[in-house]
Design a protein that fits this description.
Helix content: 25-40%
Largest sheet: 5 strands, parallel
Number of domains: 1
Distance between the termini: 36 Å
CATH superfamily: Rhodanese-like domain
Structural class: alpha/beta
Number of helices: 5
Strand order of the largest sheet: 1-6-5-2-4
Number of strands: 7
CATH topology: Oxidized Rhodanese, domain 1
Radius of gyration: 14 Å
């Protein structure tokens, strides 16, 4: 049953990746008057804030291959995804990315529904950001 639910979630997320692309936009305002979800281009951000909650929502295998420096891996497909997300500070900025932007967009909307107030979706995922920010690699 667990595998079946993961398959359904995977199909849904993949469809979001292919059909959910948008141009740069922001979403409804958060509690502090700022936009709740902001699509952020690598050219718009020179460096991440020191206390950033930078979340890579890809699989551990993808994360080990390469990830943005100081990113935490919270796999969208893991059974403990919600538990890990709930440990984040809802009032601090959260920066999300995946490979190309589909999964992080899905997670950003989910976080907004859970009460997170300042969500930044890194446009184009790591594929877009790796040329602008420091990358760490675990697998040669």
């Amino acid at each position: 049953m667990h595998k079946f639910l993961n398959l359904i979630l995977s199909v849904f997320v993949m469809s979001m990746m292919f059909f959910g692309c948008e141009s740069k936009s922001t979403d409804k305002q958060g509690a502090d008057g700022k936009e709740a979800i902001t699509l952020l281009s690598p050219k718009d951000l020179k460096s991440f804030p020191a206390d950033v909650q930078l979340i890579d929502v890809r699989t551990p295998k993808e994360y080990q291959k390469s990830h943005l420096k100081n990113a935490i891996n919270i796999n969208l497909f893991s059974s403990d995804f919600n538990d890990k997300i709930n440990k984040l500070d809802k009032n601090k900025d959260v920066y999300l990315y995946c490979e190309t932007g589909g999964r992080s967009k899905f997670v950003a909307k989910r976080l907004k529904k859970q009460g997170f107030t300042n969500i930044y979706d890194l446009e184009g995922g790591i594929s877009n950001w790796q040329n602008y920010h420091e990358i760490e690699k675990s697998i040669p």
